[in-house]
Specification:
With 356 residues, this protein is an alpha/beta fold. The chain folds into three domains: 2-182, no CATH class; 188-290, Beta Polymerase, domain 2 (2-Layer Sandwich); 292-356, no CATH class. The protein is 58% helix and 12% strand. The strands form two sheets. The chain has a five-stranded mixed sheet with strand order 6-7-5-4-8, sandwiched between helices. Strands 1-3-2 form a three-stranded mixed sheet. A hairpin with an 8-residue loop joins strand 4 and strand 5 (224-230). The longest helix is centred in the last third of the chain and has 21 residues, at 319-339.
């Protein structure tokens, strides 16, 4: 059993260094062939299977007589265990099970992207299994057990092989960091990792970008918020975990001249991660030195009114409703402060003013 303990230690060390993740609840439960037969019969599981994971108890069961034990172990314990413990999709599954909800509906019904933008596949069962088969292959490679994975792959059904190939392809397109983020795992990142994702999103259009600003809470469980000034058309991009607010240079100049809070907030709270720092500071100094005009006051009041007109179209359960209400307050308060001769510039400053 020492070799198995050593294998688990190697796998855990890689996962911690590569993803900054650890198994905290999941437990490995190895069974001999005889005990496996009895275990499956008692619980109604397939006796011909070689491993399974039970989310409600965070338990990974494997047959020790399998010639692909290592791969099965990685699949059940780390693949399903990490998914259920750390992925937003997996944690939602646990929550549904614990509250006696519709577990099968969540796993097998087609995903509504408006309600759940995270995930790589149309069905959560494929997100659940796709990640596990992808991770077992990765861990086999990292622990010098790639021949075991090849043996396991040769025995997989065609649909599982296709699922693995799809997830492997997505990893290449998104980067490993983007891949994990799209599956709802916590995001631990450097500026370089964020820029790598942005470059993949924009492709050749990235050449038109002047500045990339990282702002927002920057917490591991939160979206990554980017503010971008470019020569591209203005646009918004959101894929479930990265939220890009991009302004064309001309529109940026118009909005910044009017102290638009949606522009000044990321500009004065964020951190420049791409672009000329001196030019960026000149932009901020220009805004600091701009006089407050009636046009700027009217602009922020007008933006608040636009949001009010949009509000009736959002249901109480729509997450955009909360954002809309926040925008109404922010633009209204900003207009009021500008009329008093103040330049709040950031949402935090507005909050300080209006909570005193």
């Amino acid at each position: 059993m020492h070799s198995l303990d050593s294998l688990l230690q190697d796998a855990s060390s890689f996962i911690n260094s590569e993803f900054n993740l650890q198994l905290r609840k999941s437990q490995l439960k190895p069974y001999s062939f005889e005990n496996w037969q009895e275990f499956c019969q008692i619980n109604g599981f397939d006796v011909n299977s070689e491993g399974l994971y039970v989310p409600v108890s965070y338990s990974a069961y494997v047959r020790t007589d399998s010639n692909v034990l290592v791969s099965n172990l990685f699949h059940e314990l780390y693949g399903h265990g990490l998914f259920c413990e750390h992925s937003q999709i997996g944690k939602r599954l646990i929550e549904i099970i614990q509250n006696s909800g519709d577990e099968k509906g969540f796993m097998f019904d087609e995903v509504n992207l408006q309600e759940q933008p995270l995930g790589l596949a149309k069905y959560n069962i494929h997100n659940y299994e796709g990640f596990a088969v992808w991770l077992e292959a990765l861990l086999c490679e990292e622990t010098d057990n790639y021949k075991v994975w090849q043996l396991k792959r040769d025995k997989l059904p065609d649909d599982f092989v296709s699922l693995f190939e799809y997830f492997e392809d997505v990893e290449q397109r998104l980067s490993r960091f983007g891949f994990m983020s799209q599956l709802g795992f916590p995001k631990f990142y450097s500026d370089d990792k964020v820029l790598d994702v942005a470059k993949r999103v924009y492709s050749s259009a990235f050449e038109n970008i002047d500045f990339v600003v990282l702002y927002g809470s920057q917490k591991s469980e939160s979206d990554i918020d980017l503010f971008i000034i470019s020569n591209n058309p203005s646009s918004n991009y959101f894929n479930g975990w990265i939220d890009i607010y991009e302004l064309n240079r001309e529109e940026f100049n118009q909005l910044s001249n009017n102290f638009d809070i949606s522009v000044t907030d990321p500009l004065f709270t964020g951190r420049l991660i791409y672009g000329n720092r001196n030019s960026f500071e000149q932009l901020r100094n220009k805004i600091l030195n701009l006089p407050i005009t009636q046009e700027a006051i009217n602009h922020n009041n007008s933006e608040a009114q636009k949001q009010k007109k949009y509000l009736p179209h959002l249901s109480d359960t729509d997450k955009r409703r909360k954002d809309c209400l926040s925008y109404i307050d922010s633009f209204s308060q900003n207009a009021e402060q500008l009329s008093l001769g103040n330049k709040p510039l950031t949402l935090a400053n507005l909050k300080d003013i209006y909570t005193k």
